[in-house]
Design brief:
The chain is mainly α. It is built from 2 helices and no strands. The two termini are 24 Å apart.
Length: 79
C-alpha cells in the first residue's frame, strides 16, 4: 500500500511530520475495531466470524473512501 506523506511545512498544527495516510488508517482501525466487533457479534453466531466481519467492514470503508477521494481528484483535474 502506497502512503502519501505531507510535504514539509504543510502539516496541520500539532501534527507530527511523520504522520502519513497509512498511520492514520491504522489508528482509525485500532480505535474503531473493538466497537465493530461488538456490533458484528450481535449479528453473527461466534466471535471469529464477528472479528472477520469487523475486518471486512473496515476494509470496505477504506476502499469506499479511497474511491470517492480518487473520483473527486479526477473531477478536479478535469479527467
Amino acid at each position: 500500500m502506497r502512503c502519501m506523506k505531507t510535504r514539509p511545512g504543510r502539516e496541520p498544527p500539532g501534527a507530527p511530520a511523520e504522520l502519513d495516510t497509512g498511520h492514520a488508517v491504522a489508528a482509525l482501525y485500532r480505535h474503531h475495531y473493538p466497537a465493530l466487533v461488538r456490533l458484528a457479534a450481535l449479528l453473527v453466531p461466534d466471535l471469529a466470524t464477528a472479528e472477520d466481519s469487523a475486518t471486512g467492514m473496515s476494509v470496505a470503508a477504506v476502499r469506499k473512501h479511497a474511491a470517492r477521494a480518487m473520483s473527486s481528484l479526477q473531477a478536479g483535474l478535469g479527467e
